[in-house]
Amino acid sequence: MKLELRGITKRFGDLVANDRIDLTFEPGRIHALLGENGAGKSTLMNVLYGLYTPDEGQILVNSEPVEFAGPGQAMAAGIGMVHQHFMLVPVFTVAENVVLGHEPTGPLGLIGLDRARALVRDISARFGFDVDPDALIEDLPVGVQQRVEIIKALSRDAEVLILDEPTAVLTPQETDELIEIMRQLRDAGTSIVFITHKLREVRAIADEITVIRRGKVVGTATAQDTEAELASLMVGRAVSLGVEKAPAQLADGEFTVSGLVVTDAVGRRVVDDVGFTVRGGEVLAIAGVQGNGQTELTEAILGLRTPIAGSIVLDGTELTGLSVNDVLDSGVGFVPEDRSTDGLIGSFSVAENIILDQHDRPPYARGIAMDLRVVRERSEAFVEEFDVRTPSVEAPISTLSGGNQQKVVLAREMSRPLKLFIASQPTRGLDVGSIEFVHKRIVAERDHGTPVIIVSTELDEVMALADRIAVMYRGKIIGIVGGDVDRDVLGLMMAGVAPESAEQEAAEHPTLLHEADVIADDQQSEEPS
Amino acid sequence: MTQEPENPESPVVPEQDPGTGARGNRDATRPDDQWLRDAMHRMLTSNWLVTLLAIVAALVISGVLIAIADEDVREASTYFFARPLDTVSAAWNSVAGAYASLFRGAVFDFQAPTLARAIRPITETMVAATPLIFAALGLGMGFRSGLFNIGAQGQVLMGAAAATYVGITWSLPVVVHVVMAVIAAMVVGGLWAGIAGFLKARTGASEVIVTIMLNWIAIWLVTYLLTTTVLRQGGSRPISPAVGENARLPLLFGEGFRLHWGFLLALGAAALVWWLMERSTIGFKFRAVGANMDAARTAGINVNMIFVFVMVTAGILAGLGGAAQILGTDKTLQAGSAGSIGFDAITVALLGRSRPLGTVLAALLFGALRAGSPLMQTVSNTPIDIVLVIQAVIVLFIAAPPLVRSIFFLPSPDRPRRVKEVAA
Ligand SMILES: Nc1ncnc2c1ncn2[C@@H]1O[C@H](COP(=O)(O)OP(=O)(O)O)[C@@H](O)[C@H]1O
Ligand SMILES: [Mg+2]
């Protein structure tokens, strides 16, 4: 099946999310759509999948114009989609999820679950997926959940399979398995649309690459192009891919967590006997798949959660038992992982968000009276310093882009003398320009002698920033390794393999991306500079 | 959606959404009545035009009801097809007559023999508005802080009872007595509301439920106290004696008018509340908690403390409303002294979008409906209940801004208002 998009335009108010996009997806090809956060990739795919109606343009299936009023019609036409955010019911089994929405019914209208199971087994066998039809979704690791989504699409005879940022949640090894699956499907004649903003993946997998920037197709590329070339096409200017940083200069400060145990509402140990030390002037990254206790760890440090055991000591002062306010006052800067819920107040102005944790002390307030003039002047200075693009400091923060919102959070947290800086997912959802900015500020804070903790699920970010890396798995720290560790080793540790065996295993079974990297490195070193 | 690691033996289910991230269920104070809060938020963020149109729509709908209820209109409608104009003119007469008498009773009586009688209605409107302003200011502060306090009724009544107690049992010099009575009302109203704030902070109990229950407790407590010597001195009816002369709020324009100092105090309270909410660190915290509790907590604001604070402040204001009603208007306390002040105040606060100026205006509107309806009933024979209909329809419309917008063909405000990212 050949799928074409012609002149697709989609607007949200004044924002043109897709601007006259032309694309053709051929059968048996892996077509990568590359573009940074906010480029309009998901919007385009939602148009294709019938979730949005385009303002202009046409969709053609085998050269026939079609119109999809909803995903049902898109599916019927042979288009399957695995969303960036999975659409599975956690308390249903794999088989139930796969047939959800078009359940095979037997006599009396009962759902024919046997047929559903058979369907799952059949597809699993065909492509070598290892999926138990009777497992509950919530018990499955995220990589397997994703496979269930793929099975779901295939069970509806998808001839075009759209994968929206499928690797965002995977470890390198899981990514590897996904690549394997994509190749098999391609060889079986499915056309695959692979959406990503990660350069290394595109180069390893794609047959064709189309780059989208600010809603427009800005060019096509091949897997032979270098990452730097792809990056500059994607961003629109030359970008430095790594983070420049000098070796760590250890300074005085010291932050130590030991024997920390945090339980959740039902008493499970979500942080289990965690201990580490960060010295001034170094970045400790806490890596791991989302949901392995990192959130709870940072919240316990900040005083949002009360640990049931252990201690948290900053420069000799015990932080456990202190209120959030006191923790902040003792010199902790904190960038929460979810800026829209925990970091910012959407209806408040940029200025009010900048002073959120300082509003009741000088110079912003005298007694209980706030000095709005000082608030405005200071926040204007911060907006300037942190390059926040906003019409004014009075604008509601919700009208700013994610990158600018995050800069506001950083401005707030870094605008006072710090003894410890913690940032969770500091660049999640940001564009490349903002990512560069955020990374630079973090490195600057480190070089200033502050102990820095970065919690990130993005391996690239961890590798770029960390001097040392602690990997969390099921609430425990599975190992602390140096910042120059091999990606594959880190990936295995994220899946729960201890550091020593991880090293061994990584050496024996390098991942595809790893091999691609090695080749790319070779090429680069061959190129005369 | 929140997923946290299962027990250490079962596989970990990571958060699936890299865009929004996971958040633990951090404590017990996370509200279950989120829908209520969302509805509140919508009401508070709808614009002035919608509010105004809601009032217009309510008057139109009530006009239809007035016409239907009118004898002449019904009679004329029996021969509607023969002489349709009769029905139309009868309807016009009844509606115009009703609203004209409402106006005469509430704002300016253009048929009055003396100027004093002519302007008396507007002062009556202010009298009726006074306790509403106080109570609604407190509720509005709560709404903006994310607390749905339905307890103004009980708080008003408790404040009224405290003021009465001081007014009838203590004997103090001029000024001092009324000040003490007012302070007593503030303290008792604040404590009464503080119970709900404390329970929410401590146990996560919904303030909606707790304040409703406190309303009942207040009513029966006062009813009981009115049978004891605490509030009743002699007599058999459950009604307190009049508060002492020194404990009364002085009249503003002498004996001919009931308008008293309470109205000025209410305006002063509105100004103070405005300053508190917009210019003080306390209001900043209140608004932060109301707009995003999680972010407020992460920024070091003690959310539980704020709950208590907000409720106490609201209770103080409601208590003042009770004091104004007794010390300024009624002079004696009955179980029904609070009337429906506490409930009307909810509508007033919503109609005023919880802003002090809006609240004052909305309270005046409600005061006008209350002050004008008796004349409307006697002059134009319109049932007094039509006023309740107007109030109810206003609530209905401000609770459903999309409805008002579609009736009046207004554009929806929900269009994304994003600043296009400037080249980064
Ligand atoms: N439903 C929506 N309403 C308003 N704006 C939206 C909506 N969905 C996406 N956008 C905006 O459109 C742009 C493209 O978003 P998206 O397609 O999700 O980007 P990508 O998937 O490439 O990261 C972004 O600026 C985003 O904020
Ligand atoms: Mg996307």
UniProtKB/TrEMBL annotation, chain A:
Where does the record place the ABC transporter domain? Answer: 3-239, 255-499
Checking SUPFAM superfamilies in the record gives:
P-loop containing nucleoside triphosphate hydrolases
Keywords from the named record: ATP-binding, Nucleotide-binding
Gene3D superfamilies documented for this protein: P-loop containing nucleotide triphosphate hydrolases
Q: Does the keyword Hydrolase apply?
A: no
Listed GO MF terms:
ATP binding
Q: Which PANTHER family match?
A: CARBOHYDRATE TRANSPORT ATP-BINDING PROTEIN MG119-RELATED, GUANOSINE IMPORT ATP-BINDING PROTEIN NUPO
Name the record gives this protein:
ABC transporter ATP-binding protein
Q: Which organism is it from?
A: Occultella glacieicola
